[in-house]
Amino acid sequence: MEIQNNITVRKIIHIDMDAFYAAVEQRDFPEYKGKPLIVGGSPEGRGGVVATASYEARKFGIKSAMTSKKAQQLCPYALFVRPRFDAYKEVSKKIREIFSRYTDLIEPLSLDEAYLDVTEDKLNIGSAITIAEQIKQAIKNELNLTASAGVSINKFTAKIASDMNKPDGLTFIGPSKMEKFMEKLPVEKFYGVGKVTAEKMKRQGLHTGLDLKKQTEARLTQLFGKSGKFFYNIVRGIDHRPVQPHHEIKSISAEDTFAEDLDKGEELDDCLTKVAHSAFARLERYKIYGRTLTVKIKFADFKQITRSLSQTTPINDINIALSICKNIIANTDFEGKKVRLLGVGFSNFGETKMRDRLEGYQQTLFPEMNKI
User: Fold this and answer.
1) Are residues 71 and 161 in the same domain?
2) Is residue 97 annotated as a catalytic residue, yes or no?
3) Which range of residues forms the domain containing residue 102?
4) 201: CB partners within 8 A, 6+ apart
5) What value does the mean pLDDT of the chain take?
6) Is 240 a domain residue?
7) Distances, alpha carbon 3 to alpha carbons 9, 241, 307, in Å
8) Residue numbering of the annotated binding site for Mg(2+)
9) 329 in the same domain as 257
10) Nearest-CA neighbor of 145 among 202, 65, 90, 188?
11) Is the same domain home to 172 and 183?
């Protein structure tokens, strides 16, 4: 690793699988190949949201997190399938195995994307571009899937680069082109800048990286808080964040959105039991137990509440966990509302949090189902 003109020079690759869930479905079920496929949600009943859409569906403007109803309006003959998370997780493990041939510095962001630091690679290849090419080819040959790669000297730029030539793309942004690239980049393309922040920037006359670059650090901090300093640095190609292979466990959870809204009663209790078992199974898998149990409830009107109870000792028995869950539900006023989602999570791991760690990609099975 070198530092040139305040720029940390690493060799960073960001790999992003192309339409991952949909691509796995099209690979495993040939009848879906070449057709507009939507994973998640359902056009019937309440619907839900799109988890992933195939590139054939994206041509109609269908995007992740769009409502299924809207997706069907855009493409009435799109195919909807339920996600198979066990299958996606298994494929993700195989992708991780390919990464590990080249480096142990792997930071998964989710099942389908990760950062790799190949400043010093295991095979002494030396070229990050060559390594990215080999990884892409291995994924294609061994898994019959495609990935896009971004190669640069820091995480921020590698992440942006991987999205520039999808699908099956490879983009390199080197130190000599870094600042010019950032200057031309629209603010909404900056990774981490959401719709609200982008609109705020534009109201301030900040439309591109160059506009940001003209501002003082103090001004950007005044406008955007701590993020202001990050914006100030990143438009100059400065991003010192290392690739972090592991993340401390903060919580482990599971949740489920129901096909039909449920009243408080036996059916809801059955669903609560199922979700609690799912969350507890993840604790068992990694032999880590929390002292705090949280139940998340989302009502039919989308109002969301969480209720927590903490114990003096770790909750290491499913029957105790179930008893706590049911106690929370029994003492919660539903105000006559029906429930569309239940979640159960464990946290407050204490000493075990420092001892036991969980790979980021294993915890992020699917944000909407897996986080409280």
Assistant:
1) no
2) no
3) 2-19+86-176
4) 187, 193, 207, 211, 212
5) 86
6) no
7) 6, 13, 48
8) 16, 112
9) yes
10) 90
11) no
Residue 239 lies in a domain: no
The active-site residue, picked from 25, 56, 107, 113, is 113
> How many structural domains comprise the chain?
4
Q: Cβ distance 149 to 170 under 8 Å?
A: yes
Q: What are φ and ψ of residue 303, in 5° steps?
A: -65, 140
> Which of 47, 70, 85 is the last residue before a domain boundary?
85
**pLDDT reported for residue 259:** 74
For residue range 53-85, list pLDDT tens digits in order: 999 999 999 988 788 889 999 999 999 998 898
Distance (Å, whole) CA 298 – CA 63: 23
Question: Which residue pairs from 264-271 have beta carbons closer than 8 angstroms and sit at least 24 positions apart in sequence?
Answer: 264/329, 264/334, 264/339, 268/329, 268/339, 268/342, 269/326, 269/329, 271/342
Indicate whether 335 and 212 sit together in one domain.
Answer: no
Cα distance between residue 230 and residue 98, in whole Å: 32
Scan for tokens 């299958």, then name that residue: 87
Residue 103 makes CB contacts below 8 A (sequence gap 6+) with 116, 117, 118, 120, 121, 122
Share of the chain above pLDDT 70, in %: 88
Integer Cα distance of 25 and 21 in angstroms? 6
β-pairing, 79-81 vs 37-39, is parallel
Is residue 241 assigned to a domain?
Answer: no
Residues in the chain: 372
- Domain with residue 348: its CATH number is 3.30.1490.100
Phi-psi region of 19 (alpha: psi -120 to 50; beta: other; left: phi over 0): left
Q: How far is CA 24 from the centre of its chain?
A: 17
* 74/120 same-domain check: no
**32-41, 201-210, 251-260: least confidently modelled range:** 251-260
Of 325 and 367, the structure prediction assigns the larger pLDDT to 325
- Clarify whether residues 282 and 193 are in a common domain: no
Read off the pLDDT of each residue in 106-117 and give the average, rounded to a whole number: 92
Regarding whether 302 and 156 lie in a shared domain, the answer is no
Q: How confident is the model at residue 195 (pLDDT cuts 50, 70, 90)?
A: confident
Would you say residue 220 lies in a domain? yes
Residue 122 shares a structural domain with residue 78:
no
Q: Pick the last residue of a domain from 33, 62, 85.
A: 85
Q: What is the mean pLDDT of residues 327-338?
A: 90
> Is 132 exposed, middle or buried (CB count within 10 Å of its CB: 0-12, 13-18, 19+)?
buried
